[in-house]
Amino acid sequence: MPDSGLLFWMLVIFIIVFAVLAKWGFPLITSMVDKRRNYIDESLRLARQTNEKMSGLMKEQERIISEAREEQNRILREAAEARDNIIRQAQDQARDEAAKILAEARTRIEAEKESAVSQIRSQIALLSVNVAEKVIRKTLSDDREQKELVGKMVDESLKADISSGRAN
Q1: How many structural domains are present in the chain?
Q2: How far apart are CA 113 and CA 117, in angstroms?
Q3: For the segment 63-102, what is each residue's pLDDT rounded down to a tens digit?
């Protein structure tokens, strides 16, 4: 056990140290602890506000993304409709052009057909005349046959004039 004098001076020093600490140390320590607590509280409050702002920003971001997707879909629909309209117009124009070309081709074919038929008829007539000439020359090689033919033609001509005269 320590000596009573030592115990007395230890008690006096303890009271002086405690008084000095109570006067200047404890208020400083408690003010620092209060400041630290206030700083932590303020940091927590700011963190909550930041979280709330972040959740608001996240909702705003989702809304903006949703609107952007809707706008993208609308633009894609409009582009598809425009593409379909352009294709439809091109098809209609192609059909009209094909109909014009087809009509022109039919007209040309018909004209060429008429021309070909006309040429064939003239060639057939020429060929018929040539064949008839050869046949007549062969059959009318003597005078007696020529006289008989002239007589028949005159008779037919008279009959035709008589029947046409009656018809008038």
Answers
A1: 1
A2: 6
A3: 999 999 999 999 999 999 999 999 999 999 999 999 999 9
